[in-house]
Amino acid sequence: MIIDFEHHFTPREFMRNDVGAAPQTQFDENGAPSYTFHSMLYDLDEHIRMMDIAGIDAALLTSAAGMVPDVERCRKVNEATKNAEKDYPGRFIGCAHIDPVGGPEHFKELNRCFHELGFHGAIIASEASGRFIDSPAYEPFWREMARLGQFVFLHPALTLNDSRQFDGYDMARSVGREFSLIMALIRMINSGVFDRYPDLTVHISHLGGNVASLLGRIRMYQDKDYWATRGNERHGRKAEKPFDYYLTRNFVYNTAGIGGAMKPLQAALIEFPAERIVYATDYPQEVRDPKDVRTFIESLRAMGDTGQKILTDNIQLLIKKR
After folding, report:
1. CA nearest 144: which of 96, 91, 87?
2. Which phi-psi region, left, alpha or beta, contains residue 132 (left: φ > 0; alpha: ψ -120 to 50)?
3. How far is residue 154 from each of residues 11, 25, 150, 244, 306, measured CA to CA in Å?
4. Average pLDDT score over residue span 51-72
5. 127-128 and 131-132 as β-strands: parallel, antiparallel, unpaired?
6. Measured between alpha carbons, how far is 19 from 16 in angstroms, rounded to an integer?
7. All domains in the chain, ordered by first residue
8. Is the dihedral of CA 184, 6, 107, 150 positive or negative?
9. Cβ-proximal residues to 72 (8 Å cutoff; 6+ apart), any chain
10. C-beta of residue 127 within 8 angstroms of C-beta of residue 157
11. pLDDT score recorded for residue 259
């Protein structure tokens, strides 16, 4: 069974009335592109057509419309997700949309998603509302997710806390989001989230922001004596165990965000075992043509056992039997 673990949709009610097949891009307050809208986002028949052409059995649905602090909006997105599950039996899998720092009402919705709707995992952004993911405000969320035994889906922030340095060339989306994911990964490890909640699983997008290419440098800066930061409240902090311990124990990496290109995946496989990677497309955003999705699957199959692990064998890392 092949599951696409990063498959986006937006319920029609949250789309502009004039949206059609031609893409329309939204910009943030600094003028950086933040999201592209088009009819494929809500056309689930088209999603199913792509999945059938490519050979995808099911897809984990996530929605930018639900990555907001408005609990009523989150509820509506979660209901639309459940309706998609009902309308297309066996083809879509729900993921909870809530604000991780939204307080009791959002935690109530989180529990409803798992206990009543039967969803798997909860999606959050790598940064939001001026906060980064090591903020103490996230602590109740980590505690609740650990208690529930569900995975956290860490998606790149659609709007960065500060996009001013990415003031041209669509850099906020092309590289800013990847930096945001890498920083979130480092923040979670060094702030001790996994020391406090050792069984917490984080499903991180885009091969962790393609973090494999930077791990040599990141590891180097874990030596707080060498860089004379030991004792500094912020820069001297590190986890109880070696940095790499958490990379291959608490994180599951997905193949979205690379447009089906194999070289970024091959680079990731130098650092991470295939047993910690799951298949994902980022459809219908960074990939929209079903033939491109099918080609990516064929390329993975050509990798033999390694590709098989990514395509099918690692599903149980995230989807647990109830």
Report:
1. 96
2. beta
3. 21, 23, 13, 19, 24
4. 96
5. antiparallel
6. 5
7. 3-317 (3.20.20.140)
8. negative
9. none
10. yes
11. 92
Separation between Cα atoms, residue 56 and residue 293, nearest integer Å: 9
Q: Please tell me the distance from the alpha carbon of residue 44 to that of residue 289, in angstroms, as a whole number.
A: 15
Tell me the two tokens of residue 247. 């990379």
Q: Kindly write down the DSSP assignment for every residue of 176-226, as one continuous string.
A: IHHHHHHHHHHHHHHTTHHHHSTT--EEESHHHHHGGGGHHHHHHTT-TTT
pTM above 0.85, yes or no: yes
Task: Give the pLDDT of residue 322.
Answer: 65
Tokens describing residue 97: 């949309």
Q: Is 297 helix (H, G, I), strand (E, B) or coil?
A: helix
Pair of tokens at residue 293? 């999705």
Q: Report the C-alpha gap between 153 and 36 in whole angstroms.
A: 21
The pLDDT tens digits for 213-239 are 999 999 999 999 999 999 999 999 999
- Tokens matching residue 208: 């962790």
